[in-house]
Specification:
- It contains 13 helices and 14 strands.
- It is an alpha/beta fold and about 375 residues long.
- The protein has 2 domains: about 130 residues, NAD(P)-binding Rossmann-like Domain (Rossmann fold), CATH 3.40.50.720; about 190 residues, 2-Layer Sandwich (Dihydrodipicolinate Reductase, domain 2), CATH 3.30.360.
- It has a 9-stranded mixed sheet with strand order 13-12-11-10-6-9-8-7-14. A 5-stranded parallel sheet has the order 2-1-3-4-5, sandwiched between helices.
- β10 and β11 form a beta hairpin.
- It starts with a strand and ends with a strand.
- This is Oxidoreductase.
- InterPro entries: Gfo/Idh/MocA-like_OxRdtase_N, Gfo/Idh/MocA_oxidoreduct, GFO_IDH_MocA-like_dom, NAD(P)-bd_dom_sf.
Length: about 375
């Protein structure tokens, strides 16, 4: 097996859910070794966490700038090759840009930036750098999402008519109804989270899933947000009508105040020959619907699945795989790209997906603020 890729981590220390997800995902296929990090803006806390997870303390740095400076002093075959950015949103752009400008590969949490202008500027840096950039839209790593993509590409649904994507959570209910809490959490602070909370955090996942699975681009959208309170500056709920062509339309629904919901991402795609339905909370079941035949259920690990789906399946049929495996499939694709190996363009979202995502987020905000008018996306 090729030598492990040297991975740096920015953020994700302590009890961070996203930190655990990325670290476990990087280990699953034995492609990476965590070599250095800035887990926390507090250096002592960062060092303590590094001790807990057994990362070499001599490569734990006091801040991001020091990491770059010190790593560049090392021989190329010793320094960090790729960095994962797991920080709050407002740090994604400056960190990714400096990493790219200094020749590092990048794995970045979404949203890629806090504005479309930043996303376009980052794209220029990426083109100049020639390194690998991956955006972790985690759900593209699920085997059955990949199976749906490949079957649609092969014409299983024929001409697509309608798409319905939903992402409902209820976690902000514990914060939004308390004035002090909603004024202090970073996800509801435009300075740290960007211009959107609901669409910027979860709605963009549904948007990405629509374009990833169908292979179509959203051309226009009309959005209506709910903020719940006058003093809350960030959307916590929204509905987006989408046009993907003259006769291809749909809806993206997102909410962080859907009481009782956990991680309710789901997508239904309807075409002239049939339809697909997939739900993140039941990820091993892909339903194919028809007007003339019984409903078919596709599951991971079977020989009838596509090469892309099977490549993302680690266990025999009947053994459930979940979100760690999904993220691990993205990390595996990135490893192939870094090593210059052949890979399927569906293995990990790229810079283009990041730019598209920011275009979507800004368009939803513009649509709502303009009085719920149709806004065109850049294609």
């Amino acid at each position: 097996m090729p030598k492990k890729i040297r991975l740096g981590i920015l953020g994700g220390g302590g009890d961070s859910l996203i930190g655990v997800l990325h670290r476990v995902a990087s280990f699953i296929n034995d492609n990476y070794q965590i070599t250095g990090a800035v887990f926390n803006p507090d250096f002592d806390a960062s060092m303590e966490f590094a001790k807990e997870i057994d990362v070499p303390l001599n490569r734990i740095y006091k801040d991001f700038d020091t990491l770059i400076e010190e790593e560049l002093k090392l021989p190329k075959d010793e320094r960090i090759q790729v960095c994962s950015i797991l920080t709050p949103n407002f740090l994604h752009y400056p960190m990714a840009k400096k990493l790219l400008d200094n020749g590092f590969h990048v794995i970045c949490e979404k949203p890629m930036t806090t504005s479309l202008a930043e996303a376009k500027d980052l794209q220029k840096s990426h083109e100049k750098a020639g390194t690998v950039f991956a955006l972790t839209h985690t759900y593209t790593g699920y085997p059955m999402v990949r199976q749906m993509r490949e079957m649609i590409k092969a014409g299983a649904l024929g001409k697509i008519h309608k798409v319905d994507a939903v992402y409902y959570q209820g976690w902000i209910n514990t914060i939004i109804h308390d004035k002090e809490k909603r004024s202090s959490v970073w996800r509801l602070d435009p300075e740290k989270a960007g211009i959107s909370s609901c669409m910027g955090d979860i709605g963009v996942h549904a948007f990405n899933l629509v374009e990833y699975t169908t292979g179509l681009k959203i051309n226009e959208l009309l959005c209506d947000f709910n903020y719940l309170y006058e003093d809350n500056k960030m959307d916590v709920d929204g509905t987006v009508l989408i046009r993907m062509g003259d006769h291809v339309k749909g809806v993206i629904r997102g909410s962080q105040v859907a009481t009782g919901e956990e991680n309710g991402l789901a997508i239904s795609i309807y075409g002239e020959k049939g339809a697909f339905r997939w739900e993140q909370e039941r990820p091993n079941f892909l339903y194919k619907l028809s007007d003339t035949e019984p409903t078919q259920i596709y599951k991971p690990g079977h020989a009838y699945n596509s090469e892309l789906s099977l490549d993302g399946t680690k266990l025999p049929a009947g053994h459930p795989e979940g979100i760690f495996d999904s993220m691990a499939n993205i990390y595996k694709g990135v490893a192939r790209a870094i090593r210059g190996e052949e890979y399927n363009d569906g293995e990990f979202p790229t810079m283009k997906d990041g730019v598209r995502g920011m275009n979507f987020i800004e368009a939803t905000v513009d649509s709502h603020k303009s009085g719920n008018n149709w806004v065109a996306l850049e294609n």
